[in-house]
Design goal:
Blueprint (H helix, E strand, L loop, with lengths): L3 E4 L2 H15 L7 E6 L3 H11 L4 E7 L10 E4 L10 E8 L3 H9 L4 E7 L9 E5 L4 E4 L12 H9 L1
Parallel strand pairs: 1-8, 2-3, 2-5, 5-6, 6-7
Antiparallel strand pairs: 3-4
Bound molecules: 1-O-pyrophosphono-5-O-phosphono-alpha-D-ribofuranose.
1-O-pyrophosphono-5-O-phosphono-alpha-D-ribofuranose binds next to β2, β5 and α3.
Amino acid sequence: MAVNYATVTWDQLHRDARALAEALMPKMPVKGIVAVTRGGLIPAAIAARELGCRLIETISVVTYDEEDMGKPRIIKEPIAAGDGEGFLIIDDLVDSGVTARVVREKLPKAYFACLYAKPAGKELTDLFITEVPQDTWVLFPWDTAPLFVPPLARSKKSTVD
Ligand SMILES: O=P(O)(O)OC[C@H]1O[C@H](OP(=O)(O)OP(=O)(O)O)[C@H](O)[C@@H]1O
């Protein structure tokens, strides 16, 4: 299956995180935010700044483990969030929905918000900013670096020579 790539720049991520915060304003005040590490950390920090929220908890779910392929495991519990009542959960992306399902089971009373969602997992969110096709790989700014790309004319010339 062909994979498409969607590159998200820092500027775009910042805009999308601010849009998420704006959409979350009606939910305020909240007790705190639970960031789903690691991808949710930066969106959560941006949203927390916008929303004036200083209590940030984290949850870490490992979905691909060498010992137990495919079985998701919580390696850091969101202790401060209890059953999630009064908390916002923030992640960068919901793809298959495996992570979101585990997080929701742990924090059933929390509100789940993310920047990007794919069709397979979007029903598990309460809010997302942009839908991304299932076959599209989202390249986040922390996963990429600018690199030199040869000009078209040069690559064309090399085929003529
Ligand atoms: O819906 P899913 O198929 O579960 O995928 C979504 C999860 O995948 C990514 O995290 P990842 O597991 O890559 O870990 P990371 O954020 O620490 O890089 C992302 O930040 C979500 O938490």
